[in-house]
Structure formats: structure tokens, C-alpha cells
Amino acid sequence: MSMLTQSFDRPFDGTDRPARISEARKAQLKRIALRALAVLTMGSVLTALIALRTAIYVWHLHA
User: Fold this and answer.
1) Domain limits, the chain
2) Which residue has the higher pLDDT, 9 or 57?
3) Mind spelling out the 3-state secondary structure of the chain?
4) How confident is the model at residue 2 (pLDDT cuts 50, 70, 90)?
5) Is the pLDDT at 61 greater than 90, yes or no?
6) Of 18, 20, 39, 61, whose CB count within 10 A is highest?
7) d(CA 45, CA 1)
């Protein structure tokens, strides 16, 4: 069978297949993703504060 037409006989939506990830694992992955997002957000805020403080310092230096 050709590689291009190999899986056309199967349905695309996947409703007849069982879930591959358990609910507990989904919850754990969601918690990890939210923590990672929180860490990245805190890092972005910290970077913005450092940049603002540096800009104020440079502005006062030239005044």
C-alpha cells in the first residue's frame, strides 16, 4: 500500500479510540503547565522591572 494513502480508511476524529492519557495524568500535566506558565510570567515581570529601573537610572544619569 502506498505511504500516501495508508491511513485514509480510518476515521479522522478518533472518537472510537479509547483515551490514551488517564484523567489523573491529564490533571498532573495541567498543573505542571500552569506552574511553568506562572514561572515564565514571573520571569517576564522581573525582566520588565529590571529594564524599567535601568531606563530610569540612565535617564537620571543624563539629566
Assistant:
1) 30-62
2) 57
3) CCCCCCCCCCCCCCCCCCCCCCHHHHHHHHHHHHHHHHHHHHHHHHHHHHHHHHHHHHHHHHC
4) low
5) no
6) 39
7) 54
In single-letter form, the type of residue at position 57 comes to Y
- Cell numbers representing residue 8 in the block: 485514509
Model pLDDT for residues 38-52, shown as the tens digit of each residue:
999 999 999 999 999
Cell of 25: 495524568
1: amino acid identity, one letter: M
| Ramachandran region, residue 7 (left: φ > 0; alpha: ψ -120 to 50; beta: rest) | alpha
